[in-house]
Amino acid sequence: MRKIYFIFFLLLAQLSGYSQVVTTIPAFPTADQEVTIIFDVSKAQDTRARGLLGKTDDVFLWSGAGSTETGNAFEFQPTGQTDFAKPFEPGKMTSLGNNRWQIKLVPRQYFNVPANRPIRRLGLLLKSGNGQAQTEDVFIRIYENRLSVARLSPTEKNFFVDPSQDLLVRATASQRANLTLLLDNTTVATAANQDSVRFTLNTGTQPGQRRTVIFRAQTATETAADTFYFTVRPQSPVAALPAGLRDGITYQGANRATLVLFAPQKSFVYVIGEFNNWSPAPQYLMNRTPDGNRYWLELNNLPAGQEVAYQYLVDGTLAVADPYAEKILDPNNDRFITATTYPNLKAYPTGASGIVSVLKTNQTPYTWKVNNFQRPDPKNMVVYELLVRDFVGTRNYKTVADSIPYLKRLGINAIELMPIMEFSGNDSWGYNPIFYFAPDKAYGTKNDLKAFIDKCHENGIAVILDMVLNQADYEFPYVRLYWDGTKPAANNPFFNQQATHPFSVFFDFNHESPATQAYVERVNRFWLEEYKFDGYRFDLSKGFTQKNTGSDVGAWSAYDASRVTIWKRIYNQIRSVDPTAYVMLEHFADNTEEKELADYGMLFWGNLNDPYRTLAKGFNANPNWISYKQRGWQSPYVVGYMESHDEERLVYDVRQNGGASGNYNTRTLPTALDRAKLAAAFFLPIPGPKLIWQFGELGYDVSINENGRTGAKPIRWEYLQDPERRKLFRVYQELIKLKLTQPAFQTSDFTLNVDQPVKRITLNHPSMTVFLIGNFDVQLQATQANFPRTGKWYDYFTGQEVEVTNTQTALSLQPGEFHLYTTEKLATPEAGLVPYSGSSTGTVTGLEPVLDDILLFPNPTADAAMVELENSYFGPVELQLGLPSGQMVRSQTVQKTTTRLRQPISLQQLPTGLYWLKIRQGDRQTVRKIMKW
After folding, report:
1. The Glycosyl hydrolase family 13 catalytic domain covers which part of the protein (predicted)?
2. pLDDT of residue 160
């Protein structure tokens, strides 16, 4: 036995394994004494911490205290710490410079821990005031007022060493004591009446040998000890992968499962979990395949039908969850998931660290009610895009399922779910995925998701999954397994070190890599087969390229033959699994490329948000790019939309920035809702699939930037109590019904004349012809109708029958007025859905043949003009005088009893300017201009 060589330290150390990120003064903090906590943000591992680098202010502590050493470290929290997206002033940090921050606090007081409750550890992270940047969670131990010991080196609890390596051990005690160092229960050194030690151990030469080191301090009345373990690096057994196995979990019976990890360029892998106390043991060293690309191990004696948590410990330095896991447990976020959303969620296992994966043998399969669902024709879908978080207050699948009757009443035939696979945190749009086979527990159980899809299918509604395979967040195992400290390593089999395009937010997949291609194929197969999703909308599909265009958006959007090849391969793989599955791309590339892929069978998001918002505000724009014919495509595979999750909301923009003329103001809510009806009337009837963003049918008027662009938004089911918003809903409902039930709305013979403020759409079909005309201006428009043909027409929303003898008959359209005419009589909706069918904005205009036998003189005039009308009509003649905005200022009715009528029109007491005079007799009318000077 040797005496320990000792040295006294000036101690400034954090003593829990996070010494590089956090240090404390004193080294042994206690519950009732002030402790100084110092963060070095430059040492943080979470990529979100980058946003804290270089700051000199606006950095705050977010923290909690726990009464046990391994339990919930946020059991107690400081008063007022409730909104992560806002600064928490009691936690404001003081800058020490060089990305170092300090705060002083007394744990019991700061965290409001009762005097009778112990404090055993603190959970800490630093964040920016708005929560957009943050470190990972860090935990520090809180000591009792008694003899304590801690290790300064090595900091790890359980680690690997090379054979015959010299291992430096440094440890400290909270007071002078007799110190002992034991290796595998054999005393190797001692020292008397010291408080710090330094000693070098030899690790040994036996591969795979696990050794135990205990540092013990003892006084006359107290004893304290610290234990750590190290293992001599093993040599992986080489064995071929048994037939029938694939990456991830293969269940082989009630108590058996085989795990397979694709991990090329790694030296050895252990399976660690609840079955071995999260420690590498020889029997859990995985076999390595002869090519060195995979590791596999059969687990036996698993508890049948019970969840078991596990990880892969790779090269002895990094423990990750299974990248193919269908369920994970997250120590930082699961505690915020309620029992209502996820009943009986498995507790995070004691002894684990970081995200863990879960396996379960003998699972009871979900019993599907619908096994023969007939998907809607992709050429005629009406897709409702929704985010579970912002659609229902409970934020779970069950409540969304309860809302299906509402969506069925609206008439849609497909739902597009924003990403629902496990993403970072619980509050997200979902475009930061970390586990591609696991539904995020923040929305409910996997059977809740299946029941939702099943119920959609019962109601004739397809379900499309928003799939994010362009990028992944840091916690994705294949990001972490090949990481150079700041970005994916050069040897990462899945990811580019730098994105090849300017729009990547997280880490960019290399879709020419065989590893990525295999993973993508498995992911796409999984959700189709396991959850019966009806297809995918692929996020940022234009990013699936290895052609590096840097920050040049134009070059990135140009035709890319390699990207076309990638997408045809993915499409073929999907269709080999499910021949009718939808493949929808958010592409926005050169039309030559989109046409080639559309003609191959793929659907494309068609972003018409800008022109429709512009039109709704009263300014002219041309939305003809919504037409597949305008693009020169073979099939109507443009999924056009006025709104999606990614654009400003139409009614909000109208209310903030809409145009006005006279008393006609688009910014008032009733008029803004009328403008939304007008926009919908020139959107939904255009042949081809359409997409609606949630609550657009009720005129959602909260900005996309409310609470931050991707932040949670108010849920507005109370809109249904507003009669005017219900009218907008009914207009959507009627237009969707026409689109899905009337063949004319699915025709390939249609024309769009939509370049002028008065816009026209014609749909030709053997069953009937449809003609839409609408005034997008904020002023009254007198124009020729340009009906497609003469004959009898029916105004759908008013039910009025119109006999057209002259296709060029003049019409007078109020601002925002539109008509949907059909040559066949259809059931008329209830009155009042559109303003000109009975609301205060005026009577129906422009429905009858024009009068052409009228004289109006003098014009201009100072105070009055004379109307002279000569024809064989006898009866009432209505004369209305109005402003250019469409507002009527005077009205009178006179009886015509002879062939000639002369009637003065007074302009006295009216300001100078331009006026409109509308003259109606029987089924004929006209509009003339009068200038007062």
Report:
1. 385-739
2. 92
